[in-house]
Amino acid sequence: MTSMQDMRPEDIRGEWREYHWTYFDGTSRRLLITDEETRFPTGELIVSQTDVAGIITMCNEAFVHMSGFSHDEIMGAPHSILRHPDMPKAAFADLWTTVDQGKRWSGYVKNLRRDGGFYWVYATVIPKIVDGVVVGHTSVRREPSRDKVEELAAVYATMRAEEGR
Amino acid sequence: MARQFVISPDVNVRNITDWFILNTKVQRMTGEAFHATAYTDFADLHTAYFDGLADLVFANAADTAMLVRDHGYLPIAAASGVSKEALVVVSADGSLYGLSDLPSQLTVASTDAPDVERICRILLEPANLGPADLTLQVKPNPVLVAKAVMRDEVQAGFLPQDAYDELSDMVKDQLRVIIASKIYVVRNSFLASPAIADKIDAIWAGLESMNGDPGSAELLAGLGAPNGWERLSMEDTRFMIDLMDALSQQ
After folding, report:
1. What is the pTM of this model?
2. Is the distance from CB of B40 to CB of B143 less than 8 angstroms?
């Protein structure tokens, strides 16, 4: 399991820049970010499940491969370990507002890899409901259209600017 | 009155006799009479579901989600290490070589297998092809999907991987695979209706006894379960329901 430890220069591939990122729960983490993109594996799906606290309880091989973590490192880690600072806070606020209402959310997401790089996905998050109670979330990511990635990268840049970042 | 063992159109018709042999085994496992019906199209199959004429089902993932969530079906087993994959084909004589060559509006032949259609629609999303950009022609079986592509009646075809693998070389030579899924988590499932919930343990015990039995190896291969069966939990099935929900294009 990996807690929200600071990213370490020895784990980073390529030239990096540093951020100090504060999460929704007040914890913070040193992020080391590069411009290295890993393209989504064609034909595959990235699948994971979390508990209600956002802790990863299940993931498939594609998730492990794309995140850059080992299976043991990622299981039990908070899903926000993949959060890239280029994602606007408003996008995640919309995600959680939607799924907290028991609805599905879909959108384009730039994720952070363990090595400081990133990968784009088209994500769908749905609440995992057992006996009428939300016990977690299932997230399925598929390959995004590159046109959409370019479009959303620009939209997110504008949103970040509006958030003062 | 005999119980109903429903054989889905997803099942390879070439091996249909193996499913009737399994039906005989199921009757021995449970001590009850089961009547096996091999459906050739999904509309009839779904009518059987809604009319309560399906007690034991080997269902694709999309039907599994519907039957468990909406009709209270219970999971029994799945083929061990076998997943449902799908691919998009075009004519080998044409000028389409990859997703980037596809036009903004596409005519597609497909069977009415809901999981294959769902997977293939997702495979086309990176080419900016959404639900409104596809015109679907439903064909009765995968061979006729392939023929529609070869005869240029449509620009592309959706096929399950196992059906494509069983096409003749002559047919495959006239097709070009432009994208194939590698999802690994979509599976067919043995399900029991609530009416035979008390038979689940007996059915599972019978299926499990086939695992590793040399005398069952040929039958298992014919049923698409060369590695035998594994017990399917409700948690596994809930995951399949969530997955199918997430993959639907809403």
Report:
1. 0.89
2. no
